[in-house]
Amino acid sequence: MRLLAIASLFALVLSSGAQAAGGGDTARKHPEPQSWTFTGPFGTFDRQQLQRGYQVYKEVCAACHGMKLLSFRNLAQPGGPEFSAAQAKALAAGVQVAALNDAGEPIERPGTVADRFPSPYPNEKAARAANNNALPPDLSVIVKARAHGIEGEGPDYLYWLLVGYSDPPPGETVLEGLYYNPYFEGHQIAMPPPLATDGQVTWPEGNPPATKQQMAKDVVAFLTWASEPHMEDRKAMGVKVFLFLVFLCVLLYFAYKRQWKDVDH
Amino acid sequence: MAHGNYRYEPKSAFAKWLDTRLPIIRLVDESIVQFPTPKNLNFWFTFGGILTFMLAVQIVSGIVLAMHYVPHETMAFDSVERIMRDVNYGWLIRYIHSNGASMFFIAVYIHIFRGLYYGSYKAPREVLWLLGIVIYLLMMATGFLGYTLPWGQMSFWGATVITNFFSSIDQVLPGVGSAITQWLWGSFAVDNTTLQRFFSLHYLLPFVIAGVVVLHVWALHVPGNNNPLGIDVKSPADTVPFHPYYTIKDLFALAMFVLFFSYFIFFVPNFLGHADNYIPANRLVTPPHIVPEWYYLPFYAILRSVPDQLAGVVLMFGAIVIWAFLPWLDRSHVRSNNFRPLNRQFFFILIGVVWILGMLGAQTPDGNFQFYFGIEVPISKLLLTQICTIWYFAHFIIITPIISTMEKPLPVPESIATAVLAKGGAPAAAKANG
Amino acid sequence: MAHAPDNANVTRRDFLLVASQTAAAVGGVIVLWPFIDQMNPAADMLALREVEFDLSAVQPGQIVTTEWQKKPVFIRRRTPEEIKAAEDTQLSDLKDPQADKDRVQRPEWLILVATCTHLGCIPSNLFKGDYGGWLCPCHGSHYDTSGRIRKGPAPRNLAVPPYQFVSDTKVVIGAEPKASASAPAEKG
Predict the structure, then answer these.
(1) CB nearest to B236's CB, from C1, C17, C21
(2) C43 and B64: CB-CB below 8 Å?
(3) Mean pLDDT, range B254-274, rounded to an integer
(4) Which of B161, B231, B384, C146 is 20 to 30 A distant from B74 in Cα terms?
(5) CA end-to-end span of chain A, whole Å?
């Protein structure tokens, strides 16, 4: 169809336009694409990977980074890590949540699935004070917020950010308290290398070895799901909608041709 | 109706009774059922219907989003994420709305350039054209206000940059520009007060658009549709009733458009947006690459073409206002560019110039022009922007008036009916698409 | 107009028109559902929130109100007389027959969603009504000491929320009772 051809040409031109962005001397290094299970129109998440990724988040990232838009109930919902209801409940019960008792006194109680992930710091000032004045960003939508997002290089960027630390090349100096990371804009990042050693996290039996690369990949997959928890619903519905619309377009095309058959135009 | 010798005849007793009291059946029948429509309209003429549909989609999805959205600086970002995460089908409705804005602009640009190509702005359709410009300006305002609402970094800094347009008035009337910007903000910077009024206006303006659309359609129905040949309808043989001929054609085109639209909704919903808008607004840090939504990019480039605040703003608004003079700048009596070979070439050059301006608007201001596929063109972006901006204005102010008086158009057919018969019934659309 | 279609064409055309327009209409109707369903309670509202309540300060005969799922909940420590009155009531006297033992886990503690089943007002703790329970001030529904409707326009008894005693002095409202707690204990 001509119309479709024009539409796809338009999409192509738009897509190449979006890539045209400028750079500089300390521009971030292009993250080499990794293979992910969630890309493409039929992409889905790997449940085991998301469960491992959650563990990496909880045991490594959560020390400094909150995920305030997520609740423990999300861990059990379809399309995510799909922990069982009992597992999600147990994970929630493992954190202490600020509350008031019946006498109105502040207490801490075990979390429920309705509770949000706990924040590591009470407020932004405390977070900055604890981190050399740098603010560890909340990770709830981090993959959508970096490097053109999930449809761009967001996951690849975060993967390389986690594993791409190195010694600075000659000529580039790193300020006190900062770390050299060529994948970061400006190359100097306040976050110390979070994944320092292989086996930093111990996964249950039957999972791949916890190499730095594997931990980084798994936590990025988890963060991608957290940024877009309805991605699987969306793509599954999209496939159905597409099939229906193609069918409808074909029907309407023949109805249109039939209607105009006897008219010179 | 200019060439409509058709008149509605109420048949039943009730229809007769109603017709003398509220002739609504007559209105519908004469304007969208039996309305005599040139029979040679091609698919470029289906975008009016598509735009009406998109306006409805945006209003309905917007009303739904407003049921869940909280216009407050501390809650706006999280409430949008709550829509994405917890509200039933909230992710779908929000992606319909955010991508719908882009689809709306894609359709309106095709609609505008179709009007330019086929001379739809010329007598007797000048008022129709002017109302279209009003709709377009309202769309731009609505799109801008809406983009502020998620209260991400791009929302906040986009609002800051756009509202600062008005501070350029300070250059001629010291103090007045700043006073206006503060009045717009209700604060000393973009603030919660700004967010709340922007939300209110974002809800209001689409209904104003709908009102102007009614006038636009009214102004269409007095002279009737233009057509790819650009000639007037001369006899009933030139037309077909709108229904079912154009209802089915528009419906088919609409289904194709919705297919295109749903690709974005379901498979690349954030592709037309900007990643920085998923970072909550921070009044202390401006994002390194601040870029407007794609549909403003050519105008954004024109804004940056001169190193002067006021001149940039004036040029940017002038780039749209100039359209309003087009019916009088173009003196040719021939409407369709099918019969104006020279003018047609300049039409396509204009599209190219606007496209390059759009690309320039997306790029950082310094350095050489980056073409597609990583090709760097050895010309500075600023110089290219200036050349394109000059060409853009020259097209309307110089080229169009000169060509329209000098050019000798090709012979125009006698009538739509003879033209389509001469083609042996082959679809005129194929040729006219150029 | 230059079209004089024969009958066969009309039939075929009509079929295509009807089929395509029906398909478009069906699509349109299906699209309505997300726009309707979005008004239902969202996932964060549905997440069962459990409210813990400390019973140790409640005196016999006292009624306290707490909140669960945006609704008030009465917690009433019944006196022996109130329990007896509730248990001795004949089911045949009731508009919505239900035995008192089916409405409490421990006879001393009556826990009810405090929303009148008539039109949603909150029955008053101050006016106990003709049956020693509650009187709804809006339209005069009388409830007994088991929260059952005895007189007035309300159609049903006050509802009993799910709750669980975690100790002798602590109750969790919203938690399924132990017996029916059916979340399978999975490994991990």
Answers:
(1) C1
(2) no
(3) 97
(4) B161
(5) 19
